[in-house]
Amino acid sequence: MPKVRIAVAGVGNCASALLQGIEMYKNSTDNTTTIGLMHCELAGYKPGDIEVVAAFDVDKRKVGKKLKEALFAKPNCTTVFYDRLPDYPVQVHMGPVLDGISEHMADYDQDKSFLLADEEPCDVVRVLKESGAEMLINYLPVGSENAAKFYAEACLDAKIGFINAMPVFIASNEEWANKFRDKNIPLIGDDVKSQVGATIIHRTLTKLFENRGVILDRTYQLNFGGNTDFLNMLNRSRLKSKKKSKTQSVQSELKIALADDNIHIGPSDYIPWLNDNKICHIRMEGRGFGHVPLTVDVKLSVEDAPNSGGVMIDAIRCMKLALDRQIGGILTSISAYSMKSPPIQYTDTEAQKMVEEFIEGRRER
């Protein structure tokens, strides 16, 4: 199979986990090669067919460095589960800063926060074109709205696909969706779901309440961790799109949405020593037969970055299929399956079926 050439904006924990996983599955020789993958092979494409050809960041410990070095540089703190990465012939380029770094980061330990590089931004469109990238994954920090839109526009100019893994509304914004459709460029978004994370568990339980005739009266989801994502979100002004994305993902499983006062979903705090471990507490209060109350309390503990890698690796290969088939615009099926805020919300079961149909060529998008 031909290579799937990707570029990455934001060489953080998620990029590190994704590339570690690609190399691990590529080089695995035992019967564990399918563990953690929803599709070991997707329409002929295997994880090892994915090749990173360009990378962008703004941190001085990464900009100008070889990609292999940057993936393990501070403030990255995700588990290193595969350290035998190749010497990628890729140097990390300086991207535009815009709103990518929150001012409060300067008040925290340098090993945990961002350190702005003293470099001029590169010509992102030129780098994308010269690298031969077919798509770009947006892994920028929460709240980087202007920066996310910059990279989306860069993809339009470079005529490559865009996977928006963060909670800025691109695919679910009609104006942006039309831009990608008009240029016949594939688009996946917005805000990547984890493989088994807080949102997917909360959605599944919410749907269970609905299917079993239980009324959900109120619910909360509280998350905390120690990576730069949680540190970044201490600036509550950057949280609007994140809270909206996570909340509407759960609300979409209900026939009648909960009142705002009865649902709270969002990051709660930053605990440095947790590093990339994310702790989630979900509480659901409802009424069943005879209006008798019932309560569900769930705790999830998971390494955050690898948890999204299994989803992203399928999103990448589905976008490659769209490129092979010359399909542009929003990829509805994989967006619904892999993202918290797709343009159209489907149940996870429906979305999974749609993705299988897309892979088999029985569904256009």
Question: What descriptors fit this protein?
Answer:
365 residues, Rossmann fold, Dihydrodipicolinate Reductase, domain 2, 2 domains, globular
Secondary structure blueprint with pairings:
Layout: E1 4-9, H1 13-27, E2 50-57, H2 67-71, E3 92-94, H3 124-131, E4 135-138, H4 145-158, E5 161-164, H5 174-182, E6 186-188, H6 198-211, E7 215-225, H7 228-232, H8 240-251, E8 263-270, E9 277-287, E10 293-303, H9 304-324, E11 329-330, H10 332-338, H11 348-359
Parallel strand pairs: 1-2, 1-4, 2-3, 4-5, 5-6, 6-11, 7-8
Antiparallel strand pairs: 7-9, 9-10
Summarize this entry quickly:
By secondary structure, this protein is α/β, with parallel strands linked by helices.
Mean pLDDT: 95
What is the CATH C-level name of the largest domain?
Answer: Alpha Beta
* Biggest sheet strand line-up: 3-2-1-4-5-6-11
Q: Give the DSSP E fraction (strand runs of 2 or more residues).
A: 15-25%
SSE order, one letter for each helix or strand: EHEHEHEHEHEHEHHEEEHEHH
Rg result: 20 Å
Task: Quickly count the domains.
Answer: 2
CATH superfamily of the largest domain: NAD(P)-binding Rossmann-like Domain
Unreliable spans are: none
Terminal residue distance: 22 Å
CATH architecture of the largest domain: 3-Layer(aba) Sandwich
Structural class by SSE content:
alpha/beta
Q: What is the count of DSSP helices, taking H or I runs of 4+ residues?
A: 11
Overall geometric form: globular
- Approximate helicity band: 25-40%
Q: How would a crystallographer describe the biggest sheet?
A: 7 strands, parallel
Q: What name is given to the CATH topology of the largest domain?
A: Rossmann fold
